[in-house]
Specification:
A: 15 helices; 71% helix; globular; B: Rossmann fold; 2 domains; three-stranded parallel sheet; transmembrane transporter activity (chain A); transmembrane (chain A)
Chain lengths: 357, 442
């Protein structure tokens, strides 16, 4: 008797089977209504026409997937910057976007002052390191063991400081990325395949390669080195990590510096695709749905999430966007992420956090 | 010790007060508030415009000692192209008794229009803002010279027809509109839709969300699929250099890509490098510093170190638009002074001055801009002028005028303006009825 009384009511919604069933039912309902409303056009346009297009023009499909892949890798790289800092300090680093701008502006600004391109890269890395140390000293150290929301708000502060500081130093004028001086390739490789032309921009290939290498290196660094282990300890608990002699300050400098490197590479790659201006800050926020999807704490999550969002949003925009007037990319990413969340609330690879009351 | 500190403080205070009052007492002046965005994602377009405006006003103050001896106090309010901030700027401008409000974004203009009709402050939205505000009967306080986005869209269609060999050749062609997904970007759609119906061409829309300004990959794939014959780019800020780069990347013929005047900045085209050659944009101000007024700016402002503009940027396309806007303000003041007989005018006088502004070729010549900008006439009912514009082309280093001055399709645009103005007024509810009397054109 008592056993039954204490047993919690089964949460039906938690079962994936029930969820799938519900969603299928919803789709069927929408379909049924759709068929009633108009028997051919809408449904055809949603469920048949895009796939016909894919079959009829496979070259465009390949091109779309390629574009999605490149953006996906770049999103993954940005997301990685967030994940590292989230793991180490438990905050969503709102300043990541402006760090991208700041790093790119420093690089281009130095070059304009006459510093050779590669030396400028080295100095920019130095600047990002100095920034990491400063942030650790001035912002994070006084806030150890404070609630996460305080640290989160502090990153807003960093953002506004860097916007003002960057504008004071470099002005608001857009600048050209020094892609050529850094020996980034120009032009495109045109492939005649599948009865059409698929054009792969060399800069995109380079971006995908560099970003992949970077991601692999970071993943290995944090998985297999002592610092990586220390980082994971810090992620679990600041206090526990301190008690076993891990230097919180050192870890923080390392992750913020790494985030700075990621920011610089992101800045170079996106800067080369358009120009270096404060608008780049917005690009970094593209990582938000990636993080929701992949989980804030997982490096593989950032990678897989980036690819899913990148390819998903490009395919969605290209094949289904015209149905509702286009320009759906910016919210489609969140839509995809939410779809996944329905099944895995902690994100694809996120840690399941169970808090007992 | 304490008293001496107090004394020192008082003395210092008095000194500051005197310093603040001194210029106001020394000379008559009028105050002009201008929204600027030298920061944020749109600063690339905002900086040259602000520079051009400031330099022209400084030149008038330096060379002539102001407008008929009245100095124009020019002050910028930084909006970062954020409509919320622009409302703060509006309130600030109002409290300082600005003679005219210069919103510098379509969103800011839309927010200010209802307020300005109550506060009785003229809005000067030069070639941007609400197209239907060109109807002076319903919008006595808004001015949109020398033309509206709707005029621009009609010239784009004319240009397309000219390239194809006649209006009858438009049938079955495709025109794509890449536009910022914001009030500014959506402005030309109604006119283009009407013209598409009338001439039998197809209109394809390619909206770009502000967050994806620099991420236009899939949009250009759609363009590749749809193969539009011409593209009209209603873009702003970082969206433009990205579009030019993407066009080059996707092998879209550059001479078929035409930007609205705001997509015709030097930095916009420069981003595309060698491949951007042939990119076009509508315009009404010639680039360069050949005009006598521009020479005066160089002589009285830039060479004397009174400008923040690097010398090589003086005369760029957007800079010269800023000059034109400042010129409208100065000529508006001059006209108001003539009408009222006052030297120091207020906002209501300025409205009268703008409403009967007649910038003929001869008048433009007198102020050193003859042949370099479009003449325009504003009247009581027509607050825009629907003036001529031209197509300019990027030659790899600078913008050059291509072809003749083209008249917008006024017979297409005007009825739409009047019917939309009526809609606006009806929707607004108790919109104040025009009570201001009309001037005779000067």
């Amino acid at each position: 008797m008592s056993d039954i009384a204490t047993r919690p009511a089964p949460n039906l919604l938690a079962s994936p089977l029930v969820k799938t069933g519900l969603i299928l039912a919803a789709i069927v309902a929408v379909l049924a209504v759709g068929i009633r409303l108009d028997s051919s056009n809408t449904l055809y346009a949603i469920f048949v026409d895009p796939f016909q297009q894919m079959v009829q023009a496979p070259d465009l499909l390949v091109q779309t997937v390629w574009e999605g892949l490149v953006s996906g890798v770049l999103y993954a790289l940005i997301a990685l910057g967030f994940v590292l800092i989230f793991k180490a300090s438990g905050v969503f680093n709102f300043a990541q976007g402006i760090m991208v701008v700041f790093a790119a502006l420093t690089l281009v600004g130095l070059y304009e002052k006459g510093v050779p391109a590669f030396l400028a890269v080295v100095i920019t890395l130095g600047v990002m390191f100095a920034l990491a140390v400063t942030i650790e000293r001035v912002v994070l150290r006084p806030l150890v063991n404070q609630p996460d929301i305080i640290l989160f708000m502090a990153t807003f502060g960093i953002t506004y400081f860097l916007i003002g500081f960057g504008e004071a130093l470099f002005g608001g004028n857009p600048k050209q990325m020094i892609a050529e001086q850094l020996y980034l390739p120009k032009g495109a490789i045109d492939l005649q395949i599948l009865g059409g032309l698929v054009s792969l921009q060399k800069i995109d290939i380079a971006a995908a390669l560099i970003a992949s290498l970077m991601i692999a290196a970071l993943a290995a660094f944090f998985q297999y080195t002592r610092i990586g282990r220390a980082l994971r300890a810090v992620a679990d608990s600041h206090k526990a990590a301190l008690s076993v002699g891990i230097s919180l300050n050192q870890i923080w400098v390392i992750v913020w510096f790494t985030a700075g490197i990621v920011a610089l590479i992101t800045g170079i790659m996106w800067g080369a695709r358009s120009d270096v201006s404060f608008a780049l800050e917005i690009v970094a926020l593209k990582a938000l749905p990636v993080l929701i999807l992949g989980g804030f704490t997982s490096i593989p999550g950032a990678i897989v999430g980036g690819l899913i969002i990148g390819i998903g949003e490009k395919l969605g925009e290209f094949y289904w966007g015209p149905l509702i007037g286009g320009g759906i990319e910016s919210w489609l990413a969140y839509f995809i992420a939410l779809g996944f969340l329905l099944f895995r609330p902690q994100g694809l690879f996120g840690d399941k956090i169970i808090e007992r009351i | 010790m304490k008293t001496s500190n107090l004394l020192k403080g008082a003395a210092l205070g008095a000194l500051f007060a005197a310093g603040a009052l001194a210029p106001a007492m020394a000379q008559d002046s009028v105050y002009f508030a201008n929204n600027a965005y030298r920061t944020g994602p749109f600063s690339g377009s905002g900086i040259p415009i602000g520079d051009g405006m400031r330099d022209y006003i400084t030149m008038i103050n330096e060379r002539d000692g102001g407008v008929n001896g009245v100095k124009v106090i020019y002050e910028e309010c930084e909006t970062g192209y954020d409509t919320k901030k622009s409302i703060e700027c509006y309130e600030q401008a109002k409290s300082k008794n600005t003679i005219v409000y210069s919103p510098w974004s379509t969103g800011a203009t839309l927010a200010a229009i209802p307020r300005a009709h109550v506060d009785k402050i003229p809005i000067l939205s030069m070639a941007y803002g609400l197209s239907s505000s060109a109807d002076g009967t319903n919008f006595p306080w808004v001015f949109i010279p020398p033309f509206t986005y709707w005029d621009g869209a009609s010239v784009m269609v004319k240009h397309m027809a000219a390239e194809l060999g006649g209006m009858d050749k438009l049938k079955g062609k495709k025109l794509g509109l890449i536009h910022l997904d914001a009030p500014f970007g959506k402005e030309p759609i109604p006119v283009l839709e009407n013209l598409a119906k009338k001439y039998g061409f197809e209109l394809k829309l390619y909206p770009v969300a502000a967050a994806d300004m620099q991420n236009q990959g899939s949009l250009w794939l759609s363009i590749r699929r749809d193969r539009p014959d011409f593209l009209y780019n209603q873009g702003w800020g970082a969206m433009n250099p990205t579009a030019v780069k993407e066009a080059a990347k996707n092998n879209f013929p550059m001479n078929k890509l035409v930007g609205v005047w705001w997509a015709g900045g030097d930095d916009d085209a420069r981003a595309g490098g060698e491949q951007a050659k042939g990119y076009k944009s509508l315009s009404w101000t010639l680039a360069g510093t050949d005009a006598p007024a521009m020479q005066d700016i160089l002589k009285h402002v830039v060479d004397k170190g009174k400008s923040t503009t690097p010398k090589e940027k003086v005369g760029e396309a957007l800079y010269n638009r800023g000059v034109y806007n400042a010129m409208l303000v100065v000529e508006g003041i001059r006209n108001a002074q003539k009408l009222t007989g006052k030297k120091v005018i207020n906002a209501e006088d300025m409205r009268r001055g703008l409403e009967s502004l007649n910038l003929t070729e001869a008048r433009l010549k007198e102020i050193g801009l003859g042949g370099f900008v479009t003449p325009t006439t504003i009247s009581c009912t027509d607050h825009s002028g629907h003036s001529k514009m031209f197509v300019s082309e990027w030659d790899g280093t600078k913008w050059t005028k291509k072809g003749d001055w083209v008249e917008p399709m006024k017979d297409e645009v005007r009825p739409l303006i009047e019917s939309n103005a009526k809609d606006y007024v009806e929707k607004a509810g108790n919109w104040p009825k025009r009570t201001e009397s009309c001037e005779k054109s000067s």
